[in-house]
Amino acid sequence: MLQRIITSTIMIAAALGLVSCADNGIAYQSETVIEAYLYVGEPIRDVRVYRTQDLSGPIDQRAASVTNAVVTIVGPDGPIHLRFVDDDGGGHYEAADKTIRVAPSAHYTLSVDIVGAQYTGSTTTPGVTTWVTPIADTLRHPVADEFAWQGDGGDGHWLVSFTCTDTTGGRLPYMDAKQPPLSSTYFTSIPRSSIQWGSSPWFGPYRCVVYTPDANLFKWFTAVGLGGPFFDRRYSSIDGGIGVFGSASRVEASVMVTR
After folding, report:
1. How many folded domains does the chain comprise?
2. Spatial separation of the C-alpha atoms in residues 235 and 246, rounded to whole Å
3. What UniProt keywords apply to this chain's record, in alphabetical order (predicted)?
4. Average pLDDT of 185-198?
């Protein structure tokens, strides 16, 4: 869910914030957008670097992707130089050494160098998130069994995500098969919850993930992940550009939603 909180959304939002420039006869100036998340206990991957695009033409993630950046993350293991890997979203950066895992309660810095410019950020990872009362493996509508977890060192909020995992991805027959699977995310300030039935209109298998985010990731989620049409630069944690360098720990489980 949070690997890409729809990077195109912030590309469009940034463009919307500047589209009035074109209306006033001022040339559009592209900006750099960076989206980088570190997950405790997992390899470093899926760091995205884009350039915003003028809304006078079509939004093309592949054309917007920056493929020649020098991306470095420094943490307890020292500097880690990331490599570019092509994919359907225009490409991402990742650590070549998959044995290096993100440490809990550790400080990390990010540096992205693009010809003539440098963008930086920093994050302190939360502690490990664990289940206290795991979510039931089967939930029958409309009963909402409560589940609980423990996650320290974050922002004081938690994100709870439900994503449909059946072969249809929860997509209706008329929907584009390339659209992401049906997914919904909400936040809570207490470490327990019950399934939000409005988040799961499709019966079948789901993946439930609970995130303990740092302040950077939580602010980014409230700015972009909730689907707002505009982006407030005060929520950005990238010096010199737009975007996020945040971290979280997470715990997950599979659940079957039935009638």
Report:
1. 1
2. 12
3. Signal
4. 83
